[in-house]
Write the structure tokens for this entry.
Amino acid sequence: MPVLRLATATATRTYTSITTSRIAATTASAATFRFFAPTSRTAARISAASTARTFCATALAHAKSHRINKMPPKKQAVVEKIRLGRPSNNLKMGIVGLPNVGKSSLFNVIAKCDLGKSANFPYATIEPEEARVPVPDERFTWLAGQYKPKSEVPAFLTCIDIAGLTAGASTGAGLGNAFLSNVRSVDGIFQVVRAFDDAEVIHVEGDVNPIRDMEIISTELRLKDIDWIEKALDNSKKNARSAGNVSLEDKKRKEEVAIIEKILKHVQEDNKDIRKGDWSNNEVEVINNLQLLTAKPVIYLVNLSERDYVRKKNKWLAKIKAWIDDNNPGDLLIPFSVALEERLLALGSPEAEAAELATLGDNITGALGKITKAGYDGLDLVRYFTAGPDEVRAWTFRKGLKAPEAAGIIHTDFQKKFVCGEVFSIDDIKEHGNEAGVKAAGKYKQIGREYKVQDGDICYWKHG
């Protein structure tokens, strides 16, 4: 048997060698021989080898394809952009402007009090006055009428009457340092701009020119920001020099220097307000810590004479709008007349005010409700409600807030020990009459941690 096996192996090797030689010879002399037909065994071997190679290549390609399809790329996590400012449920708006433009008078009519010291001379107001003003919301009024609770707590806007700023306030002129520090503590700014002529009300600059006045305020706020940013940059550089190169905290300190340098360039060289920049989340965190004046939203309140307000015409309005579009596009402009608002307040009742407005012409309304609501809208603030027989209450939050954070506005334990929420909308209860009707319609839903609370939601939170 060993001899036979050896002979067979030798014969196979010899045959293969001969076959290979024949194929090579045939290929080399293809021009001479028109046709060559290998033996059936040789053809079978060639065909089997070709099929094997094709099968292996197909299997490998299929395996690669299968591997790719089975392991798709990871989804990129959506990073929500942080917004400037950190407004709380107690929103604060500062009333800012030059002296004798109507700031304290506006404060008095908004607050329906006589705290603001109106006078025909600069710096009648030195220490800021504060007043909490309910924000008009017909949804809240409807809920209170529906539940008839023992207590009603609407959304409030805290208005702060800040003394008049003048040219040079950023360097301390006219008690400027103290006044600008008061501006720093608010969430947003109502900038009052005088566009009425009155010989009995002096103007600190000598004549009425709203464009010049707006330039003064804008310049002083930026100059003060530059002063604060430069001081912050010096401190940040000192911290970076003392940092090592090991920990994440060391790296963060060095990154902060670059961020503050970018912020300084934006205000000092580009001559732009902070709120008009395009900032990353890390940059917004630094800006929020600096509490810069030009990072705060501004709503321009143009104080007109009663006559101009009623006829809806004033020679300065178009120029003021053009200045805002050129310098701070997107900022809101609201015309109002403090003289008219004072006269309406003196009438003593909403009914008397409505009757007086009707005598002035069609579609003439006061502007106070619009002004207080604009304070919320300027900061992307909305409200959800808690409602029951004991209390109906409005809670202020920023758009896009998730359920645990929204619950935390009521109490931090609600956020830390959040379990779930039960939610339905104000529109649902209006449509179906009461909570039982909402449940029967399938609109009463249980939500988890990822739910983003909507404006007008009515929420009940469950926590551990």
Notes: The first strand starts at residue 91 and ends at 96. The two ends are 86 Å apart (CA to CA).
